[in-house]
Amino acid sequence: MSDTAPTVSTGPLSTGAVHFDSVGVREARDVLNRFYHPVSLGAPESAEVVVGAEVIQLGPLTVGHLTFAGRVTLVAPEADAYHLTLPTAGRVLARRNGREVTAGPATAVAFRPGDPVYLRPETPSAEIDVRIERWALENELAALLGHPVEGPVDLPAAFDLTCGPAHSWSRLIRLLHDELEHESSLIYQPLIAEHLCSSVLSGLLLSVPHRYRDELVAPATAGPPRAIRRVLDIINQEPDRPFTVADLARVARMSVRSLQEGFRRHVGCTPMAYLQETRLTRAHETLRRADPAAVTVAAVAHRWGFAHLGRFASAYRARFGAAPSETLRRTG
C-alpha cells in the first residue's frame, strides 16, 4: 500500500474540498477531524486499513464519500453537529444512546448534537457522511415555521431511504457527491451553493419524523398583501442580491411557507420565480443598451445574479425568443 497525501482546494462561500485514496488510519483521522467531529478512528494493530475519501464543505453543510478496506471503528464522545450516514455499499453498525442499528444502502442513520457517535463499517464498504451545523438546521426549521424552535431537532436514529421524500432527499445528497470530482461544478458558485444547502436542510426536515413535522407539512396560511408587497419592493429594488427564500421571508416577517402561499395567491408564482423574472428583465434591458464592443453576455448575466451562463441563456431565450448575444449585437 502506498499512501497519497491529500490535495486540498478551496472555493467561494467558505468551501473546502479534499480528495484522497489509499491512505492509512492517521491521515484519514486528520481529515475526519477537520471536516467532521473530533473523532477516534481505531483499527486492530495487525490489520491493514485503507481509507479513501472525497469531501466537500459548503458553508454549514459537509458531504463526504468514505470508503473502507479493513476493519475500523469511528467514535466521537459527543457530536457537535447533526451527522447522517448513508451507506452506499456494504453495511455499517451504528450505536446511538445505547440503541444499535445496522444500516445498508436502504437505510440512513442519524446523530444529533450531544449524541455519542459510534460507527463500525463493514469491510469493504462505502458511505456518504453528512454533517449539518446545528445552527443551520435549526434556523432553517424556524424560517420554515415562522417562529423559534427548541433544539436539537429530534431526528430518528435510523430512517428508510427507499421511498417517499427521504428517497428524494438521498438522491439530492448523491447529486452533491457526484459533483465532487468536477472542479468547475456549479456547487462551487455561491448562489447555487446557498440554494443547495437550503434544499438539503429543508428536504431533511420534510423527510423524517420529528416533533415539528406535522406543523411543517400542514397547510400554510397565505401572507397578507401588504407583506407580499414589501418583498416585491425589495426584489425590484435589488434583484442582483443573492436572496434565498428564507431571506425574503424575513423581509415579509412571516414563515417561508406563508410567503410561498401568499405569492401563489397574490402574485401567481413563487418568490424565486418572480425574482428570476425580474433579473431576466433587467438583464434584457442592460443588453439592449450595452455597447457590444465593451460588454459581454457573461458580465451582464453575473451582474444580475445568474451564476451559470448556459442556464441564463436558456431562460433568456424562453422568455424573449432570442439568445442574449443576439440582443447584444442588435445594439451595435
TrEMBL record:
Cross-referenced SMART domains: HTH_ARAC
Spell out the PROSITE patterns in the cross-references.
HTH_ARAC_FAMILY_1, HTH_ARAC_FAMILY_2
What Pfam families does UniProt report for this protein, alphabetically? AraC_binding_2, HTH_18
| Gene3D superfamilies to which the protein is assigned, alphabetical | Homeodomain-like
Annotated keywords: Activator, DNA-binding, Transcription, Transcription regulation
- Ranges of residues in domain HTH araC/xylS-type: 229-330
**SUPFAM superfamilies under this entry?**
Homeodomain-like, Regulatory protein AraC
- Domain of life of the organism encoding this protein: Bacteria
Task: Give the protein name, as stated in the record.
Answer: AraC family transcriptional regulator
Species of origin reads Actinoplanes oblitus
